[in-house]
Each structure stands twice: as structure tokens, then as C-alpha cells.
């Protein structure tokens, strides 16, 4: 079928919204009419890499309505409202153990842009291949073919166009706190970088009952919002005495990927504390003694299984305890390059692209 999509033709260049021909859903796949698609920092980082296949459609925080399903699909049906998350195989040891973010096939299924058989899923107006399998969805488009594994059905009464970010960024921040770091009531957490992932972590820490939640960021506006959403203190990330100002905490969480910030996040841990990382940045050198009695780990997708965790976040939102909608600003799909600019300069925290 013909649809509109934001196509990246050259790494690092602007997106171009154009017509593409999307293939029919194959075995285990579903065609989804996109209601909204969040723009995640991962989309921005990886689209700069010259080794990625181009042309390509990014987008991995889609939400929409199922229009058709391929052979063997049983968990969703036409008319279902869905949130689209990451893809996984479902049968490797990690998936079978409930650790789908660490699926043996995670990289190939989510970061290659193509199916396992090498097919791209779409063609352009000239019949050339367009990679349309980013995170099993490529949702910067009016329609996407997703895998059954990455779809989560939701209540049709919900504001569907706003739910896409629950599929990755917000899931990552909240899951890292509630699942991976297992922040408990009365404990303390420092969040370094309070963009959408960091703010989700702040909101989740409040849900967990953390006694102290320290928000660290360079942007005053983000620090102020973090205080409104549950932080007990906000610290300027440019403070030359940053570690001393943050103080000692039970858990730290870095979203920046900046090596110096990561080292600070480790240094503020109490003995037996844990630092969780989700940012993509440069190599980090840490003296072994800095980890004495402490733990350091990189977290994918908040350790969350989407079909379990996304409904939990929606429930918290309905209770007024996870107000993620306060982070969102919507843009027409045609204004995708404006959305990327505003996200990069801090004007917008979480852009959502609306195909209609």
C-alpha cells in the first residue's frame, strides 16, 4: 500500500516526507495506521551513523490502530488500539526467562532496519528499497508494519496519539527505576540528565516512595519541571562541585552517556549502591576501586516486558501518578525536522509526530 513516511536518505541529513510503498504484513506481522510517534534520542543518535542502511524510516515509539494482520497472528486483530515497543524473538533463553530486552536477536531485530531475511519492507517512488524495520516498526510514517511481539493493546478510550513514548523512552526511564534498580521506599536516587527518560525516572522514583530524588541537568527549565514532577532537589549539572552538591545516594541513573557525568554518577554512590546507565556516549574509564562494593550496569528498555509494564504505566497515569503528558508537544509529521531541532535545543522535551 502507498503511504507517507519521513525518509532519511543520507546519514546526518534532514528527513524528507515522501510517498513509499509498504508491503503487506507477513507471518507474525500487523499493519498499523499510526496515530502518533514519539521522537526518541536513539533515533537522532543512530541516524548519524554512516553504516546504517539508507534510505531508511526511523521511529520506534509508535501508537495506532491495527488495520490488517498477517498469517499466524493471534494476539491482535483489526481495530485494536496498540502501543508499539521494541521487537524480540520470543523463543531464546532470555525471552523465555522474561528478559526480552536482552533477546539474543535484539540488535538484528531492532537496529538493522531490515527483516531477518534481509528484506526492507518498503520501496520508494522509483521502486528502490527503503529500510522500514527500525525496532520492528519504523513509525515515522502514516502506516507501519510491526511485529506481533512489539504490539501492546490498550483501551480505545485512551488518547492514542499520546501513548507512543510509553513504548521506549518513558518505559526505559520508569522501568530502570522500578525494575532494574528496584528503588524502594525511603531510599535515595540521583538522576543525571532529566530529559524525557530522566523525568520518567523521577516520576517513577516518586511512585516508589523514594525519600530523596535529586535531579541533575544543565537546563533550568528541566530542573524546574523535575521538581514539579517529584524531585526533592534540583542541581545544576555545570556546578564545579557537582558530586559534593549531589551528596551520597543509594542509586544513581545516568541518561547522558557523557563519560565525566557517568564517573560522577558512580562517585556519589554509597557502598553497595547501584548506578544504571542508558545514555549512548564515549568510552568510560573507571578505576576498579571506584566500584568497591558498588554495582554498575547498562540497562536496555528498563528491563521491562512491554505487555506487562506499559499497562502498568497507563494505570499510574490514570491515577495522576505518572503525568507523562506534561512532557509532550505534538508536531505534524511534515515538521519532523523542526521537532528534532526543538528536542536538541531543549525547547521541547518529548516531541510526538502526528501523521494526520
From TrEMBL:
Alphabetized InterPro entries for the sequence: ADH-like_C, ADH-like_N, ADH_Zn_CS, GroES-like_sf, NAD(P)-bd_dom_sf
Domain Alcohol dehydrogenase-like N-terminal: 26-152
Pfam families the record matches: ADH_N (PF08240), ADH_zinc_N (PF00107)
Coiled coil: none
Keyword check for Oxidoreductase: yes
Residue ranges of domain Alcohol dehydrogenase-like C-terminal in the record: 196-303
Protein's UniProt keywords contain Metal-binding: yes
SUPFAM superfamilies noted in UniProt: GroES-like, NAD(P)-binding Rossmann-fold domains
Co-factor(s): Zn(2+)
Keywords attached to this entry: Metal-binding, Oxidoreductase, Zinc
PROSITE patterns for this protein: ADH_ZINC
Family named by the database record: Belongs to the zinc-containing alcohol dehydrogenase family.
Protein name stated in the entry: NAD(P)-dependent alcohol dehydrogenase
Amino acid at each position: 500500500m502507498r503511504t507517507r513516511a519521513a525518509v532519511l536518505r543520507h546519514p546526518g541529513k534532514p528527513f524528507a516526507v515522501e510517498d513509499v510503498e509498504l508491503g503487506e504484513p507477513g507471518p507474525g506481522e500487523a499493519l498499523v495506521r499510526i496515530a502518533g510517534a514519539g521522537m526518541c534520542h536513539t533515533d537522532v543518535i543512530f541516524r548519524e551513523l554512516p553504516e546504517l542502511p539508507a534510505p531508511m524510516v526511523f521511529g520506534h515509539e509508535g501508537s495506532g490502530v491495527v488495520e490488517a494482520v498477517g498469517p499466524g497472528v493471534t494476539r491482535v486483530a483489526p481495530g485494536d488500539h496498540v502501543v508499539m515497543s521494541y521487537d524480540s524473538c520470543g523463543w531464546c533463553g532470555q525471552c523465555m526467562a522474561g528478559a526480552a530486552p536482552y533477546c539474543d536477536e535484539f540488535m538484528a531485530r531492532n537496529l538493522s532496519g531490515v527483516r531477518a531475511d534481509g528484506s526492507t519492507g518498503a520501496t520508494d517512488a522509483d521502486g528502490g528499497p527503503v529500510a522500514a524495520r527500525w525496532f520492528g516498526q519504523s513509525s515515522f510514517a502514516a502506516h507501519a508494519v510491526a511485529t506481533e511481539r512489539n504490539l501492546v493493546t490498550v483501551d480505545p478510550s485512551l488518547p492514542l496519539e499520546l501513548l507512543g513514548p510509553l513504548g521506549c523512552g518513558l518505559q526505559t526511564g520508569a522501568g530502570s527505576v522500578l525494575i532494574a534498580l528496584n528503588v524502594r521506599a525511603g531510599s535515595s536516587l540521583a538522576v543525571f540528565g532529566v530529559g524525557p527518560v530522566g523525568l520518567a525516572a523521577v516520576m517513577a522514583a516518586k511512585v516508589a516512595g523514594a525519600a530523596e530524588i535529586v535531579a541533575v541537568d544543565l537546563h533550568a527549565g528541566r530542573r524546574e519541571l523535575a521538581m514539579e514532577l517529584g524531585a526533592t532537589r534540583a542541581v545544576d549539572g555545570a556546578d564545579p562541585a557537582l558530586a559534593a552538591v549531589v551528596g551520597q545516594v543509594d542509586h544513581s541513573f545516568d541518561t547522558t552517556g557523557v563519560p565525566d557525568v557517568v564517573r560522577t554518577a558512580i562517585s556519589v554512590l554509597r557502598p553497595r549502591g547501584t548506578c544504571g546507565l542508558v545514555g549512548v556516549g564515549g568510552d568510560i574509564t573507571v578505576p576498579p576501586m571506584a566500584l568497591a562494593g558498588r554495582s554498575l550496569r547498562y540497562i536496555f528498555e528498563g528491563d521491562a516486558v512491554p505487555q506487562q509494564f506499559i499497562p502498568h504505566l497507563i494505570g499510574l497515569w490514570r491515577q495522576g501518578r505518572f503525568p507523562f503528558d506534561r512532557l509532550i508537544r505534538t508536531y505534524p509529521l511534515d515538521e519532523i525536522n523542526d521537532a528534532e531541532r526543538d528536542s536538541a535545543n531543549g525547547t521541547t522535551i518529548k516531541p510526538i509526530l502526528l501523521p494526520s
